[in-house]
Amino acid sequence: MRIDPPIAIIASIVGYAVVVIAFSNGAAAQSPHDEAPTACQIRLASDRAIFKPLGELGGPAGCGGPDVISLERIMVADRTVVAIEPPATLRCETAEAIVSFVRQDLAPAAAAMGSALSAIENYDSYDCRGRNRVAGAKLSEHGLANALDIRSVRLRDGRVVRPADQAAPSEFRAAMKAAACNRFATVLGPGSDGYHEDHIHIDRIERHGGYRLCQWDLHDGAQTYALQSVVAPSRPGATALAVPVPLPRPRPFTAAGARAVFLPDESRP
Fold first, then answer.
1. In 10 A of CB 232, how many CB atoms?
2. Measuring CA to CA, which residue among 109, 106, 233 is closest to residue 171?
3. Cis peptide before 32 (omega within 30 of 0)
4. Per-residue pLDDT tens for 175-232?
5. In total, how many domains does the chain have?
6. Structural domain range at position 102
7. Quick count: other Cβ atoms within 10 Å of Cβ 254?
8. Do 230 and 176 touch, CB atoms closer than 8 A?
């Protein structure tokens, strides 16, 4: 499906008619009728994404955040559309990073498998909860509308690719991991902590000193953690990271489904 830019802009901005949207987890987004689009929303609405502005999102225990949108579709370079299923509730700047990730990294990686990217399965976006759904845990980046979990991507030829699955094409998984770790502050997948064995978590948390965490074992026999110390550019014109990304030592993962391995408080999503 192709969408012309004027239609995309209208579809994106029409969401301002929404005054109050209530969420099942107790949070609410408030967006006045006359609230002007933010700079981030204007960048997305030009020709990159279809979304609904939700305004500032508030909830219990510090949940929510400013300039939240519901990201529905992403337009790639050839004007075709990638659906987000279901739509992801995210801070606009986080959504903007994900839009660039899809347009510049995932879409080309999918094309290398012989078919265009059609949809991304949103396993979790905004969710007012503690990290790893553990009672009493520190607030998750999901609770701040600053994270997305991806369980699968769908191609136009009908194939469904699950990046956390060892059976998925290794070239696609390696390309997705390298690009995600180059763009996001946290990337967690299989082998990270026992909570991300069937999906990939990405977020934009801000840590002291620019500390970044990339833990996703591709199970390809390589030293996958060591690979992240030098991250190659994920797109033409990008600059490789000048210094190694500081990473923790790999943590043991004793068995499938294990729940006994924990990351430090500052890095658990």
1. 12
2. 109
3. no
4. 999 999 999 999 999 999 999 999 999 999 999 888 999 999 998 765 444 334 334 4
5. 1
6. 5-186
7. 9
8. no
